[in-house]
């Protein structure tokens, strides 16, 4: 019998053998994910046994970053391997309008250039099947070429749920009906995370075992509107009673229910990989696009989504690579969303494409334990827009972090090793270090052709400082 198997293998086409050697990829991207939302990152009120198990089977990064404090730029950075500043895609689509602010926002782009070879396109060229599920939010809503920027126009074979939306806007929001492409509405009461997971399970069931795949699942959760099935809301209302004196964790029963549904989804996907016998050849990545939507979800870091401080960009970052990454390992090296593209290429045994993923570097040496550090020791952010914070640029170089606010040139300097909560601004105490990092930040902006703000001729401080109304659907 063994001889027959050997003979049979001799007649398998070489391209097929090469395909079966490549790992599958399951990429799980969570919206508005705070650093402190999972048990493996310190959460106690939220319950995430499946996610915690995933972390225990792979590597957990303690200095993982999103490429922006809001969603669309971060998502573009993951798929392109480029900083948002290089792409000129620097805000959530379509961004806030501040016509009377002190500075004018540059003419930034709301789509990814088709001339770029994105991660799914690079994998597809190498024989991968590719599927997108969930939140896309990389389309120029209302513009003539909107239809040319669905996931299926950027390297994905199929698209389930992806459109211009940054949050569920169907008739039932997170509950049926959903109004999303290629996602059936199910029955009344069905929850969006469950239905997208059903589609993910169906996709896994239909995969050809001889062809590697990328399943890119970008959850709409935990973005608002915050809502969960009634039974979970009641469960966490009761649990919250035992946390009455706790002020360091967000005790929102509906959000806790959303987290549990997310955890259930991860558990179902992991179980399906086991059932299909492909878990040992499947890399699983779990991370977020920006910080949580309030300051109780960020594990003690300062501020949250939209802000320049760590709470806006420090993210859970977990990678399971069976047979390559030591189970239960942790890493303190700073890594960022742009790094996924070159990393997945190297995992697949494919050549790097530095002309495409221009700002990302492979973190395979960290994942395999061959190296304890990367050649790169500096990260950058660029946000020439108004949000919860005023426009800013930032850099982390080693343990030092500098923030430059564009309106007045104010600098903030922190040593993250001694002060991860960014409680003590050291710019006045260490002016030389602040100026050194500022020079590096400016040089980087020039190198990536970052768009800068200009003086606004319509600036009106009275209108700017008037009572602000919350923008509906802001990201």
From TrEMBL:
GO molecular function: arylsulfatase activity; metal ion binding
Region span, Disordered: 449-475
Cofactor(s) listed: Ca(2+)
InterPro entries for the chain: Alkaline_phosphatase_core_sf (IPR017850), Sulfatase (IPR050738), Sulfatase_N (IPR000917)
Keywords on record: Calcium, Hydrolase, Metal-binding, Signal
Hydrolase listed as a keyword: yes
Signal peptide: 1-18
Domain Sulfatase N-terminal residue range list: 23-349
Keyword flag Signal: yes
Compositionally biased region (Basic residues): 464-475
A Pfam family it matches: Sulfatase
Family, similarity comment: Belongs to the sulfatase family.
Stated name of the protein: Arylsulfatase
Organism of provenance: Pontiella sulfatireligans
